[in-house]
Each structure stands twice: as C-alpha cells, then as structure tokens.
Amino acid sequence: AVVDAQAGAWAPVVVPAAASSAAPAARAAPLAVWVDAEGRVCVLGGEVTGRSPAPLGEVWRVPGAIPDPAAATGVGAGVGADTFTFRRDVTFAGVPSVGHEVRVVVNTRALIAAGKMRPDCADASFRVAASGEVVAAWLDPQPGCFAEKTTFWLAARSSPAVALHLRYGAAGHAEVRAAPDAVFTAWAATSGDAADRTDYAAACPAATPNECWSAATACGAAGSGAAPFSAVVAPSGVAASQPASGGGGPVSTVLRAAVGLGADQPGALTWPLSATGGLQSYVLRAHVYDNDSGRAAHWMSPSAVAGACVAGAKPSRGASASAAPVTGIGVFTPATGGVGGMGSGVVNGTGPSGSGLLAAAGPWRGLDAAPRRAGWRALEIECDGAHVTLRVDGEVVAAGLPPANLSAIVLFAGHVADSASAEPAPAYWSTVFAARRAPASAPTNVTLGAEVSEVWAGVGAAWIKVTTSGNAPEPARGAAAAELAGALYVWGGLPAKTVAAGSGGAVHRLDITANPPAWSRVDPVGGASPGTRANHVVAALDANGGGGGTTGAVLVHGGRGRGGGEILGDVWTFTPSDAAWELLFSSGGGDGSSYPLLHSHSGAARGGALYVFGGA
C-alpha cells in the first residue's frame, strides 16, 4: 500500500498475478521493504504461514515504479504507462446475450476537473475484474470526452454478467480504443466498404452482401448514372468541425451526399442488416453535416419503405406530407406551397426543415427542440421494442413514437435547386452505426460503483523474483533488518535448522545498489555481541543522527532470547566501518533508568534517538 503522508490517505497497490508468472507467497514479517533507485518496491524475506521461513536471500520486486505518495491522488501519480491510481467497479444485469452492446456513462468532466483523468480520456481503461484483461471500448464522440455523460460502448464478454473495472489516473497511459466494427452490430464504413468501393452505384458484391453500401434502385440511383453518394476526403471546412471518431481524431473520409444541379434527383443508400434478421430493439446513430440549404433533404431511416423515394413521394416539388417513411429523422424541405399537416414547423407553407427546424417522419413534422444550423449534427433513432425515441446531439427531441424494426441503415439524399444555375449544397455523413439494446420489457442495468483509490500496476506487470549473488543467511524466524548507506544489514532470528542467523554476532549485508544485489557476511571484531534473539528492532542511525544515511551504525533493541522465554530491553550498536558491536544500555538501565522490555515491536532512528512503537 502507498500512503499520502500529507493527507493521511492510504491506497492499496495491486500487482496482478499473471497466469504464466510466479508471485511471492503471502507472508508475515518481511525483513525489509525498500524502494530502489528506479522507484521499484522490493521485498526481502518474511515468514510464510504454516511453513518454514522464506529464505532470507529471497528478494521480490514490483515491476515499474510505484507513484509518489504525495501525488497519489491525481492523474500525475502514475510513473509507469500502465500504473493507474483509481478504480470503479462496473457491473451489469439483464444483458441479453454474449457480444451484446452495452453503454457505460461516466462523468468525465468532473474527473478531469479534479485532476483524476487525462483531459483526452485516454487513460480510461475497462478491464475484466478477475484477470485485468483489456475490454474493447469505443468512446462515443457524442458528447465525447470532458462531458457529464461521456459514453463508452462495450461488447459484452464471454459471460454477459462479467464484472469489470474502470481504471483511470495514469498520466502516461493511452488506451488503444476498439475498432468500432469490433463492438457494434453494424458499423457502416464511410471510407469504403468491404469491397473497397467508394462509388456505390452498383449493387453489393455477392461475397459481402451485409458489409457494403448499395444505392437504392427505387430512387433512380443505381443504373441511372446518378449515384448521389460517394466516399470522399472531408473538405477542410467540413473536417474542421467534424466530431471525433471515438478513437481520438475525426474520420478523415466521409460519405458525400450530392444530387443533380437544378433537377429533382434524390437517392438512397442502404446498408443491409439481413444477417441479423432485423432488430426490434436497437440504437441507430449517424452524424450528418447539414449545409443549411433551403431546398434539401438528408435524412436516415431504419428501413427502406416501398415508395418512400419514388416519383411523387420524394422530397421534391409537390411532395405530400403523407409520403414519408415509417420512421425517419434529418433535414426535409419540400418545395413551397400546398404542404399541409406538417405540424409546428410549418412557416408560410414551407416544410419542416424549411422553417428552420430539423424534421421527423411519420408524417413529416418539424422538431421544435432541434433548430437547424450549418454544421455537424448527431441523429439518433432508438427503439426499445415498444416505442421509438429520437435524439439530436444527444438530447431527446421526440419520444413515445410507434416502434419500427431495423432492417437496414438507410440514408436518403435529395436537393432541389431554385434555378438551373443554382449550386446545390451537398451534405456529408460520418460515424454511422447500429447497436443492439435490451427491450423495455427486460432492460439492461449498468451500475458504476464508487471511486476507490487503488494503485494498479497493470496486466503483464507480474512480480519479478530477483536473483542475488553471494551467500545468503540461513532462514530464521524473527530476524530483522535495516537499510544504511545503500545496504541492508540483517541480524538475529531463531534458527529454522541449525544455528541462528545472529549466532556469534555475525551480520549479513545485502548491497542493494549492486546488480544483482550481493550478499556478504561481516564478522565482528572483538568478543562482545548481543545474544541470540528474535522479534527485535533493527534501525539505522547515520553519522548525523538521522536514519539511513551514508555512514553510521545499526541499532538493536529488545526481542526474545533463545527459547523465546526471556524478553529483552538492551540496546546495542553495530558500526559497519569497524565491524564492532557495542552495548549502549543493558536491559536494567545501568544509569538507573528503565528501558522497555519489548518484543515484536517496530522502531526507527531519527535525530540521535530511537523511537519504538507497539510490541508486547
């Protein structure tokens, strides 16, 4: 665990155990825990419950640097690319099937404002709780990062109810977002289809009937030499305002919907979903660049309706209000005059979009909550099997509409120029997808748990067993160690097999600056030395009276004597520079003072004093 000493807050440090790697056994009383020059935490020795003590030479190291405790509350805490500092549990209920899309909504605005998440949300990482495996997630560009309702789309794992962790707070981590076609039921490409076609006048190739766009012949596009759609690089003015793709940047290639100059030449583009058998509960989304033209029709529908775009029913001169698909949303501006029943969007006989509003079909009507403007708009049709809800830019603009099955993604295009010389303004489509959702009768519930401060080293960051050189001391229970001048000094303990590690006053030194760490035995000069003992305190006192300096002595206090019966209170020093033991105070306190008789306690040296705590 890591603690912020200023705030007094603890955060557990989790190092996931890889299936193919070893890890140190759970143990009590490790001899020493230290941080090496590269910021990696190392552990020496300890006692394994129910077994003999772990060999004193056994050193384990945490891979990668552990965050600085003083920074462990912010996104800057992670030193390694995969070192996260926060976790939230994600649980699901009611996911209909494996691979079913689910949405997880996160208030990234609050997390970023608090300094807990990167401004680009790149450190938001979904992981399988049990294994740490990355879960493919797509960041929805609507509303995108730094929003109160940032949406991540995930495909349910091998078990629809598998528990996940959302981890974040890693300054150096950049999550590789899932390719959308790996998440969604249908991701309708705007950069060419499965056959790498960018001109869609012909029918879909037989080899990829459900992975391509095809112009609808009912609209006079295929075979007429006037395919209104093509995949193009977004013009600079359009690309500048384009929403991100969900992987970090905008989609460079878009669908251009352009129609004939000065003539009624509507068309439709269809991405079939026959492989799914059609969906009764779904989300259909597309981004459209509305050119704000006064005579245009660019809208989408979940099904190709017979007669919806044939002569007399197409969005052009003389179009009737009843000639509309069962469900549709977008721009719809028929010619002026004689258009009735259009609802609140009608102004001076013009159609819904002509009044300055986006429109909804069935029949066509203006959407008061969705005024038109030049730029990208996110259009969404969601059906829960009982009702249809329409959204524009993430906001509900119509609800409680009759249900409509999703049999194909259909984009319609039409433009009527006022004169033969007028330049029609094309529309552009991008980020088109369809996702399954649970029906209203059996909804999916996603629960995002409370935030937990937890430093997590990441998958692949398995413990490393460090090989040491030299002769390590024999395993002993109750030994103790302290760090002084780049070395650990180990002394004492009761024997596991033969003699105690501290028998004869010998001290074992582990040079932790060497690679690999090197053991050596330091035999004391002179006959004086502490008697064999265990569960004592060993602390480092440097030449200036502090702990862990470049020169100085090692202090030993208390513990249990041989056999475990006698509790001691004497204080000894061992000076590495001359390899000599010296008794400072006996258990009785030679000057009349009373020194504590303690074992199993902890201690540290500072300012020329030894501080002890706990024990018995």
UniProtKB/TrEMBL annotation:
<keyword id="KW-0677">Repeat</keyword>
<protein>
    <recommendedName>
        <fullName>DUF2341 domain-containing protein</fullName>
    </recommendedName>
</protein>
<dbReference type="InterPro" id="IPR015915">
    <property type="entry name" value="Kelch-typ_b-propeller"/>
</dbReference>
<keyword id="KW-0880">Kelch repeat</keyword>
